[in-house]
Design a protein that fits this description.
With 242 residues, this protein is an alpha/beta fold. The chain has a single domain, classed as TIM Barrel, CATH 3.20.20.380. It is built from eight helices and eight strands; from the N terminus they run βαβαβαβαβαβαβαβα. The protein has helices spanning 10-19, 39-48, 68-84, 102-111, 129-138, 157-167, 184-189, 230-240; strands spanning 2-7, 23-26, 53-56, 88-91, 116-119, 143-146, 172-175, 194-197. The chain has an eight-stranded parallel β-sheet. β6 (143-146), α6 (157-167) and β7 (172-175) form a beta-alpha-beta unit. α3 runs parallel beside α4.
Protein backbone atom coordinates (compact mmCIF):
# COMPACT_ATOMS: atom_id res chain seq x y z
CA UNK A 1 0.00 0.00 0.00
CA UNK A 2 1.30 3.48 -0.89
CA UNK A 3 1.57 5.83 2.09
CA UNK A 4 1.61 9.57 1.39
CA UNK A 5 2.46 11.80 4.33
CA UNK A 6 1.17 15.36 4.52
CA UNK A 7 4.43 17.03 5.60
CA UNK A 8 4.22 20.61 6.87
CA UNK A 9 7.93 21.10 7.62
CA UNK A 10 11.38 19.70 6.95
CA UNK A 11 11.10 17.75 10.21
CA UNK A 12 7.86 16.13 9.01
CA UNK A 13 9.38 15.30 5.64
CA UNK A 14 12.41 13.75 7.34
CA UNK A 15 10.15 11.72 9.64
CA UNK A 16 8.23 10.43 6.62
CA UNK A 17 11.45 9.33 4.95
CA UNK A 18 12.86 7.70 8.09
CA UNK A 19 9.58 5.85 8.71
CA UNK A 20 9.58 4.38 5.21
CA UNK A 21 6.68 6.34 3.70
CA UNK A 22 6.52 6.33 -0.09
CA UNK A 23 6.10 10.06 -0.76
CA UNK A 24 5.10 13.35 0.83
CA UNK A 25 2.74 16.17 0.04
CA UNK A 26 4.81 19.17 1.09
CA UNK A 27 2.85 22.14 2.43
CA UNK A 28 2.58 24.52 5.36
CA UNK A 29 -0.23 25.67 7.69
CA UNK A 30 -2.25 22.51 8.33
CA UNK A 31 -4.62 24.59 10.48
CA UNK A 32 -6.18 26.08 7.32
CA UNK A 33 -6.01 22.95 5.18
CA UNK A 34 -2.49 23.53 3.86
CA UNK A 35 -0.76 26.22 1.80
CA UNK A 36 2.11 26.29 -0.71
CA UNK A 37 5.48 25.81 1.04
CA UNK A 38 8.24 28.39 0.78
CA UNK A 39 10.98 28.08 -1.83
CA UNK A 40 13.52 27.61 0.96
CA UNK A 41 11.63 24.69 2.50
CA UNK A 42 11.05 23.06 -0.88
CA UNK A 43 14.68 23.36 -1.92
CA UNK A 44 15.96 22.04 1.44
CA UNK A 45 13.71 18.97 1.22
CA UNK A 46 14.71 18.25 -2.38
CA UNK A 47 18.43 18.71 -1.72
CA UNK A 48 18.73 16.88 1.59
CA UNK A 49 16.12 14.12 1.32
CA UNK A 50 15.40 11.39 -1.23
CA UNK A 51 11.68 10.79 -0.65
CA UNK A 52 9.46 11.70 -3.66
CA UNK A 53 7.93 15.16 -3.23
CA UNK A 54 4.50 16.30 -4.33
CA UNK A 55 3.90 20.01 -3.68
CA UNK A 56 0.66 21.66 -2.63
CA UNK A 57 -0.13 24.64 -4.85
CA UNK A 58 -2.63 26.71 -2.86
CA UNK A 59 -1.74 30.38 -2.46
CA UNK A 60 -4.10 31.18 0.41
CA UNK A 61 -6.86 29.82 2.61
CA UNK A 62 -10.53 30.76 2.51
CA UNK A 63 -11.78 29.02 -0.64
CA UNK A 64 -10.66 27.48 -3.91
CA UNK A 65 -11.87 30.19 -6.32
CA UNK A 66 -8.94 32.19 -7.67
CA UNK A 67 -8.40 35.56 -9.30
CA UNK A 68 -6.17 36.05 -12.35
CA UNK A 69 -3.41 37.36 -10.07
CA UNK A 70 -3.64 34.33 -7.78
CA UNK A 71 -3.65 32.00 -10.76
CA UNK A 72 -0.49 33.68 -12.06
CA UNK A 73 1.19 33.01 -8.72
CA UNK A 74 0.09 29.36 -8.80
CA UNK A 75 1.42 28.85 -12.33
CA UNK A 76 4.75 30.42 -11.37
CA UNK A 77 4.96 28.08 -8.37
CA UNK A 78 4.29 25.07 -10.59
CA UNK A 79 7.02 26.18 -13.01
CA UNK A 80 9.42 26.45 -10.06
CA UNK A 81 8.49 22.93 -8.94
CA UNK A 82 9.09 21.68 -12.47
CA UNK A 83 12.51 23.34 -12.64
CA UNK A 84 13.53 21.90 -9.27
CA UNK A 85 12.53 18.37 -10.26
CA UNK A 86 9.51 17.73 -8.05
CA UNK A 87 7.58 14.52 -8.62
CA UNK A 88 4.05 15.86 -8.43
CA UNK A 89 1.66 18.76 -7.96
CA UNK A 90 -1.35 18.85 -5.63
CA UNK A 91 -3.84 21.54 -6.63
CA UNK A 92 -7.21 22.39 -8.18
CA UNK A 93 -9.87 25.08 -8.37
CA UNK A 94 -13.61 25.53 -7.89
CA UNK A 95 -16.13 28.07 -9.08
CA UNK A 96 -17.94 30.20 -6.53
CA UNK A 97 -20.98 27.92 -6.77
CA UNK A 98 -18.79 24.95 -5.77
CA UNK A 99 -18.42 23.14 -9.06
CA UNK A 100 -15.11 22.27 -10.66
CA UNK A 101 -13.43 25.20 -12.37
CA UNK A 102 -12.52 23.18 -15.42
CA UNK A 103 -10.65 25.96 -17.20
CA UNK A 104 -8.30 26.73 -14.32
CA UNK A 105 -7.84 23.10 -13.29
CA UNK A 106 -6.99 22.16 -16.87
CA UNK A 107 -4.40 24.96 -17.01
CA UNK A 108 -2.85 23.87 -13.71
CA UNK A 109 -2.70 20.29 -14.96
CA UNK A 110 -1.19 21.23 -18.32
CA UNK A 111 1.41 23.48 -16.68
CA UNK A 112 2.45 20.56 -14.48
CA UNK A 113 3.72 18.75 -17.58
CA UNK A 114 4.95 15.25 -16.81
CA UNK A 115 4.57 15.62 -13.05
CA UNK A 116 1.75 13.67 -11.43
CA UNK A 117 -1.29 15.80 -10.63
CA UNK A 118 -3.48 15.26 -7.57
CA UNK A 119 -6.76 17.16 -7.27
CA UNK A 120 -6.85 18.07 -3.59
CA UNK A 121 -9.62 18.15 -1.00
CA UNK A 122 -11.45 20.96 -2.75
CA UNK A 123 -13.19 17.88 -4.14
CA UNK A 124 -14.95 17.57 -0.79
CA UNK A 125 -16.82 20.81 -1.49
CA UNK A 126 -18.21 19.96 -4.92
CA UNK A 127 -21.98 19.61 -5.21
CA UNK A 128 -21.96 16.50 -7.43
CA UNK A 129 -18.92 14.32 -6.66
CA UNK A 130 -19.70 11.67 -9.28
CA UNK A 131 -19.94 14.29 -12.03
CA UNK A 132 -16.70 15.88 -10.77
CA UNK A 133 -15.05 12.46 -10.87
CA UNK A 134 -15.91 12.08 -14.56
CA UNK A 135 -14.64 15.59 -15.30
CA UNK A 136 -11.31 14.91 -13.60
CA UNK A 137 -10.94 11.62 -15.47
CA UNK A 138 -11.45 13.56 -18.71
CA UNK A 139 -8.70 15.98 -17.64
CA UNK A 140 -6.38 12.99 -17.07
CA UNK A 141 -5.73 13.90 -13.45
CA UNK A 142 -3.62 11.25 -11.69
CA UNK A 143 -5.62 11.01 -8.47
CA UNK A 144 -8.21 12.62 -6.21
CA UNK A 145 -7.50 13.29 -2.52
CA UNK A 146 -10.79 13.17 -0.62
CA UNK A 147 -12.38 12.40 2.72
CA UNK A 148 -15.57 11.30 0.98
CA UNK A 149 -17.10 14.72 1.67
CA UNK A 150 -17.17 14.11 5.41
CA UNK A 151 -15.09 15.51 8.28
CA UNK A 152 -13.00 12.34 8.28
CA UNK A 153 -12.38 9.68 5.66
CA UNK A 154 -13.77 6.92 7.88
CA UNK A 155 -17.07 8.81 8.06
CA UNK A 156 -16.99 9.24 4.28
CA UNK A 157 -16.03 5.66 3.43
CA UNK A 158 -19.36 4.92 1.71
CA UNK A 159 -18.79 7.66 -0.89
CA UNK A 160 -15.10 6.77 -1.10
CA UNK A 161 -16.04 3.21 -2.02
CA UNK A 162 -18.53 4.46 -4.60
CA UNK A 163 -15.90 6.73 -6.14
CA UNK A 164 -13.32 3.93 -6.18
CA UNK A 165 -15.69 1.50 -7.89
CA UNK A 166 -16.75 4.07 -10.48
CA UNK A 167 -13.18 5.23 -11.12
CA UNK A 168 -11.78 1.77 -11.85
CA UNK A 169 -8.30 2.17 -13.31
CA UNK A 170 -9.06 5.57 -14.86
CA UNK A 171 -8.02 7.60 -11.81
CA UNK A 172 -6.76 6.89 -8.29
CA UNK A 173 -8.98 7.62 -5.29
CA UNK A 174 -6.80 8.44 -2.27
CA UNK A 175 -8.59 8.64 1.10
CA UNK A 176 -7.32 11.37 3.41
CA UNK A 177 -8.56 13.07 6.56
CA UNK A 178 -8.43 11.68 10.09
CA UNK A 179 -6.63 8.46 9.16
CA UNK A 180 -4.70 6.85 12.01
CA UNK A 181 -3.59 3.50 13.40
CA UNK A 182 -7.07 2.81 14.73
CA UNK A 183 -8.84 2.93 11.37
CA UNK A 184 -6.24 2.51 8.60
CA UNK A 185 -6.85 -1.24 8.19
CA UNK A 186 -10.45 -0.58 7.13
CA UNK A 187 -9.21 1.26 4.04
CA UNK A 188 -6.86 -1.57 3.12
CA UNK A 189 -9.66 -4.11 3.54
CA UNK A 190 -11.90 -1.93 1.33
CA UNK A 191 -9.36 -2.21 -1.47
CA UNK A 192 -7.76 1.25 -1.49
CA UNK A 193 -4.19 1.23 -2.78
CA UNK A 194 -2.94 4.49 -1.27
CA UNK A 195 -3.59 6.54 1.89
CA UNK A 196 -2.87 10.17 2.82
CA UNK A 197 -2.33 11.21 6.43
CA UNK A 198 -0.16 13.51 8.53
CA UNK A 199 0.52 11.36 11.63
CA UNK A 200 0.77 14.64 13.52
CA UNK A 201 2.19 14.98 16.99
CA UNK A 202 1.84 18.28 18.81
CA UNK A 203 4.76 19.63 20.82
CA UNK A 204 4.58 22.70 23.07
CA UNK A 205 7.71 24.72 22.30
CA UNK A 206 7.15 27.71 24.56
CA UNK A 207 8.17 27.64 28.20
CA UNK A 208 5.96 30.63 28.90
CA UNK A 209 2.67 31.50 27.23
CA UNK A 210 2.60 34.92 25.49
CA UNK A 211 0.25 37.66 26.64
CA UNK A 212 -1.58 37.86 23.31
CA UNK A 213 -2.37 35.39 20.55
CA UNK A 214 -1.20 35.80 16.96
CA UNK A 215 -4.12 33.64 15.75
CA UNK A 216 -7.10 35.64 14.51
CA UNK A 217 -10.35 33.72 14.92
CA UNK A 218 -12.14 36.20 12.61
CA UNK A 219 -10.11 34.87 9.66
CA UNK A 220 -10.75 31.17 10.35
CA UNK A 221 -14.08 31.06 8.52
CA UNK A 222 -14.57 29.22 5.25
CA UNK A 223 -14.92 31.65 2.37
CA UNK A 224 -13.19 34.54 4.13
CA UNK A 225 -10.26 35.93 2.13
CA UNK A 226 -8.29 38.80 3.66
CA UNK A 227 -6.56 41.37 1.45
CA UNK A 228 -5.29 44.91 2.00
CA UNK A 229 -7.75 47.68 1.17
CA UNK A 230 -6.67 50.66 -0.96
CA UNK A 231 -9.35 52.76 0.71
CA UNK A 232 -8.17 51.94 4.23
CA UNK A 233 -4.51 52.51 3.36
CA UNK A 234 -5.32 55.93 1.88
CA UNK A 235 -7.48 56.82 4.87
CA UNK A 236 -4.65 56.14 7.33
CA UNK A 237 -2.07 57.78 5.04
CA UNK A 238 -4.15 60.97 4.79
CA UNK A 239 -4.50 61.17 8.54
CA UNK A 240 -0.77 60.77 9.07
CA UNK A 241 0.32 63.25 6.40
CA UNK A 242 -1.82 66.19 7.45
Amino acid sequence: MILEICANSFESALAAQEAGAHRIELCTELSVGGLTPSFGLLEKVLVELTIPVHVLIRPRSGNFSYTETELDVMLRDIETCKELGCDGIVSGALTKDLTLDLEITKLLKETSGNMEFTFHRAFDWVQDPLEALEQLIALKVTRILTSGQKTSAIEGIALLNKLKDKAGNAIQIMPGGGIHAGNCIQFKEAGFKTLHFSATKKVQTLEKQPRISMHNSLLFKEGIVATSSVKKIKEIESLLTK
